[in-house]
Amino acid sequence: MSEDDVPEPMDVSEPDGSTVVADPTDPALAPASRETVGWRRLVATRPRRLLLVAVAVVAFVAVGSLAIGVLRGEPSVWTAPTETFDLDGPETIGAGDAWNLVVDRPVTDATLTVTGPTGSTTVELAGTFDDVTVDGYPTEQSGHLTAIVRTADGVGTASVTIEPGEAVDGITPLAGPRSMTADREHWTMVTAFARDRFGNAVTDGTIVEVIARHPDGSVESIEAPVQHLLAAVRVFSETLAGRTTLRVDVDGATGDEVEVLEVPGPPISVDLLEPTMPLRADGRQLVEIRSDVLVDQFGNELLDGTVGVVQLFGPSGRGTLRTVTIDGRAEFVVEAPSTPGSLSLELTVDGVRSDSLVLNFGADVTALPVEVDRTGDAVMLTIGPVLTELGGFVPDGTIARILGVDHELELDVVIADGMGVALLDPVPDDLVAVDVSVLGARERVEIP
C-alpha cells in the first residue's frame, strides 16, 4: 500500500458520548472492525435522537393546546390568575333593570362571562375600567344571575337575584268545570297565571282578585295569593240558573272575561198530563203526551234538551222510548194499540220518576158484519162494511183476522173500502166455526 493509500485518522464516538481519534492503520481496525465502529456510532447516537424527538412532540402538543384555548376564548392554563378582586353590586334587581358592578381597582383587557336562567354568554372588555354594567336580555328573566370578570392576572365574581316585575294586562282566567248546578253547593275552580312584561310569573304571595257576576246580578270578589306560579280560587254557584261572568285583577292588570253556566238541578217532581183526545184502539192513532213544567227546587226550568226516558206497559207488551225537554216540558207521542186495553206510562228525568199515567183505549169498531156462503166444498166469508165509532169505514189496510174455533185455521184478510173477502176452498171437514176480529172487535160465525 502506498503513502497515498494510507487513510486519514478518524473520529470514533464511544458509547458514553466521548470521542477518540482512531489510527486507521491499527490492525484492530480491519474492514470488518470498521463496520463494527460504524454500528457503535449508530447505537451511541440513537438515544440522543429519540430524546430530541420526544421533546419536540411535547412542545408541539403544549403549544397546540394553548392555541386552541385562545381561539375558544378560554383562559390560558399557563397564565392562571394569581389574585382575585371584588365586584360590588346590589343583591337584587328588578327584571329588565341594569346590573351595575363596581370593581375595587382598575383592570385592563378582561373577559366578562354572564350565566343565568337562559344560558351563558361571554364578551371582551378592552381597555382599562373600574365598573361593569350588565343589561338587556340576560336581566329580563327572573332567577339567579352570575358574572365573572377575568384578566390576565386576576378574577372577580358577583351574583344577583332578578325579581319579577309587576303584572301586566293579558291575564285570562281558566275555569273548570264550565257548568255547575245552581244550588250554592256546587263550584267551579278558577286559576290565573299573572306575568310581568317579560313573561315572568309574578312573585309568590302577590294577591290575585277573581271577580264574579252571577245570573241574579250579584257580584262577588274572591282574593287568593300566587303560589307556585298560579293563583286558584273556588267560585260557588247561586240559585238562579244562567251565565256567570268571571275576570281577574292583579293591581289593576286584567284580561278577557270568561263565562260559566249555572244550570238547574234535578226536578222536584215529574208529572204527566192526561191527553185530551179520545183514545181508540185503532193501531194508527198517535197520542201526544206532555209533562207539566219541570223545575228544580229553586224554580229554575230544566234546560232544553234534558233527556227523559219513558217506560210503556200495554196489551202489546213492554217498550222504551226517549224524549227531551222543550220550554221546560217533556213531550212525546205513543201509538195507539190495535186491541182495546190499558197502556201505562212512566217518565224518568234526572233520576226523578213520575207516577204511572194509565191510558185506556176503547174499541174503535162498532159494526163488524160477516156473511157466510157455501158452494159445494167452498165457503166464502164476506166481511163488512166495517165501521168505526164515528160511522166511517176503517182505514184501508186494516187487517181482519180469521181463526178457526177448535181448529188450526188462521187467515188474515186486508180490508179495503170497509170490506174484506176470504175464500176457503176446500173448507176443512172438521171446521165448524170461525172467529173474525178487526181492531179488537170480534164476531163468531158458523160454517154450514
TrEMBL record:
Compositionally biased residues, Acidic residues: 1-14
Keyword Membrane attached: yes
Keyword Transmembrane: yes
TM ranges: 50-71
Keywords: Membrane, Transmembrane, Transmembrane helix
Region span, Disordered: 1-32
The protein's name: Uncharacterized protein
The organism of origin for this protein: Ilumatobacter fluminis
Lineage: Bacteria, Bacillati, Actinomycetota, Acidimicrobiia, Acidimicrobiales
